[in-house]
Amino acid sequence: MQLDIVPLNSWLPSAGLPLIIAGPCSAETECQVMETATGLAAIGGITVFRAGIWKPRTRPSTFEGVGKKGLKWLQRVKAETGLLITVEVASPLHVKQAIDHGIDILWIGARTSVSPFSVQEIAEALEGHDLPVMVKNPLNPDLKTWMGAIERLNQAGIKKLVAIHRGFSFFNRSPYRNAPMWEIPIELRSLCPDLPVIADPSHICGNRDLLLPVAQKALDLEMQGLMIETHINPSKALTDKHQQLTPGQLKELLSKLVYRQEAVPGEFQNRLESLRSEIDKLDEELMDILARRMDVVEEIGYYKKANRITILQLKRWNQLTLDRIEAGIRMGLSKEFILKLLETVHEESIQRQIDVMNRTE
Ligand code: PEP
Ligand code: MN
Fold first, then answer.
1. CATH number for position 354
2. Closest Cα to atom 1, ligand 1: which residue?
3. How far is the CA of 130 from the centre of ligand 1 (A)?
4. Which of 18-22, 90-94, 169-173, 353-357 is least confident?
């Protein structure tokens, strides 16, 4: 894809390497914003302060951001700490208000980048303004929609563009709030080599305990920066409280990251890395399916217990084995492998049902 991009370091000289963007998920009060910002300014290495003031929430009765008045608080952050400021915009009105308040960088969230209509409207509102825009990947793992959003902005004359990898909605059980699916940003980089890509480990993880390895992985894949949600008192945060760090915790996390001075050329586009990422995702799905299977097995166990039916139903098991072997062979698996797998699964299933029978509740 041919994009006309201005290199990141020419318009955003970062305080540290890589670029670190930090700040609360949501601006809540002027005091919370200022305390978080001064805390961040004190730890050093932070270039941009983020805060959401228009929050895209799943349910309408939840906190939807403080709105326009938060822009004044961000102006104060900039004046008092020197940090650049960024907010999420989702409509032409947000763009106008952000521009009127001197916001340095805009970002488009995952719920907006998924919609070509909204992105087009935002792009048109930005025409004639030389404002940098960061584009989060859409909720669903759809590289073309992500690229389409970036193209729409580029066609409207926005050349200071950054892609933010924030993970993808994942239907199954997963340790992550949004599955990283690293192969997608890797593919984006190989299709748009000039486009800076940064990661948002906070929204990938959904849980602060998982942040470090994900942030490290992003750096190892040569992403140019990190956006990490930071709150002066995460346990009291009105949004995303499980994933936010205090400024002190962010400092600790940054100190643990290994910054590779000289990237191995082409490592980001490494095919091996991309394939490994696919394997990670598939294994996660495999675990999810096995766990779900065992849940159903237990439910059957309770049913058998209530109806005094024996655990082992040999006829059913023999038929199931034959069916699975046939299906597996059709999918290119060997009979020996399927048998071994089924035996292991069966053993665990029987054990689960024995446990159910022995339970006294
Ligand atoms: C956010 O950055 O707080 C946010 C709403 O993120 P996303 O669009 O990635 O869900
Ligand atoms: Mn958030």
1. 1.20.59.10
2. 25
3. 23
4. 169-173
